[in-house]
Amino acid sequence: MKLDCIVFARRALLIVSACAVLGGCMSSSPIWDAHFGESVRAITRAQIIDPQAGEHRPSTPGIDGNSAASAMDAYDKSFKAPVPAANPFVIGIGGGSGAGGGGQ
Q1: Greatest alpha-carbon span in the chain
Q2: Distance CA 80, CA 91 (A)
Q3: b/e string for 74-87 if b means 16 or more Cβ within 10 A?
Q4: How far apart are CA 23 and CA 76, in angstroms?
Q5: Alpha carbons 53 and 69: distance in angstroms, whole number
Q6: What pLDDT, in 10s, does the model give residues 6-51?
Q7: What is the DSSP letter of 98?
Q8: Distance of alpha carbon 50 from alpha carbon 56, whole angstroms
Q9: How far apart, in whole angstroms, are the C-alpha atoms of residue 35 and residue 28?
Q10: Other CB atoms within 10 A of residue 28 CB
Q11: Exposed (0-12), middle (13-18) or buried (19+): which is 52, by Cβ within 10 Å?
């Protein structure tokens, strides 16, 4: 009886290990590769309200190139030299002249 259990355990271990080894050889990558990117394309299509919007009407007139370049330059310059902020901790009492200099 004990020998039968050992033989059964060896065979079961052999079958389980063979299944694990052969399971590692199985590839499901071609199935995944065939559908690669479908979810991204579906989500992108779902976010577009009207895919043929460019075909319906001509674009509305906008700003000419020179005005747009000037506006962008003014916008960029506003970040190069920002307006200096006043110190919020200065109360503004006294002129800061240093009067009362210790008796000299």
Answers
A1: 115
A2: 29
A3: eeeeeeeeeeeeee
A4: 61
A5: 27
A6: 888 899 999 988 888 877 777 667 777 788 899 999 999 888 888 8
A7: -
A8: 10
A9: 12
A10: 7
A11: exposed
